[in-house]
Design goal:
Length: 220
């Protein structure tokens, strides 16, 4: 899942309640940092997880080929979200886990799309490993990041990712239908948790903006 900026929400004359302040157009890294630190970007990542989960649950009778394509596209899209979100970390040491996680999602997505006729076991292995590693890296980032708002929510999302990975890897699925239901259920759960993270981050941004405005209005 996406972990927002590594410290308390920024404030200042250019700060907006829906995300970080505008940055100079000439610096791509700063533009990516502004985008990745916005609560709407986290919301987009949540929707990108939730929608495939709903689709998989609504059409459980589709073939393994269709399931592999859906999962592959999901992994590629989430990889892009993770890549941009990584630039919202201020320190290089905090940015590296996010970039590694983005690379993992993209590689897994390519594997799913390159051979969509692979076996059920192979697809389960790819998704299970991605969720397990993603949850572990998210937990590490949440614990290592200083002044992270709503750390408990982020850790809960990380724990859910770890459990999802363990369940997919540990429970054998004998049919594409069983795998579809399992993956769809976990995608929906992960998407709902990330929705909670997005709205919690929006609340933190608004509180920071309100505190900054109160500080300006207070007499010296």
């Amino acid at each position: 899942m996406t972990v927002p900026r590594g410290s308390a929400p920024p404030t200042g004359p250019g700060h907006r309640p829906d995300g970080p302040a505008p940055t100079p157009a000439g610096d791509p890294a700063e533009l990516l940092a502004a985008l990745g630190g916005s609560w709407t970007w986290i919301l987009g990542s949540a929707v990108a997880t939730l929608v495939p989960g709903v689709l998989v649950l609504v059409w459980p009778n589709e073939s393994l080929h269709v399931l592999a394509v859906l999962i592959g596209l999901y992994l590629l899209v989430i990889g892009v979200f993770r890549f941009v979100a990584a630039f919202s970390r201020r320190e290089q040491g905090e940015r590296l886990p996010g970039l590694l996680l983005a690379l993992l999602f993209v590689l897994a997505g390519v594997l799913c799309l390159r051979n969509p006729m692979q076996t059920i076991a192979a697809l389960s292995l790819i998704v299970g490993v991605v969720w397990l590693v993603s949850g572990m890296l998210t937990a590490y980032t949440a614990l290592a990041t200083r002044d992270l708002p709503h750390r408990g929510v982020v850790l809960a999302a990380a724990a859910l990712g770890i459990v999802a990975g363990v369940v997919v890897l540990a429970l054998p699925t004998e049919s594409a239908r069983a795998l579809t239901r399992l993956l769809g259920l976990w995608l929906v759960l992960l998407g709902l948790v990330e929705l909670g993270v997005a709205f919690a981050w929006r609340a933190a941004l608004r509180r920071a903006a309100a505190a900054h405005q109160g500080g300006i209005a207070a007499p010296l």
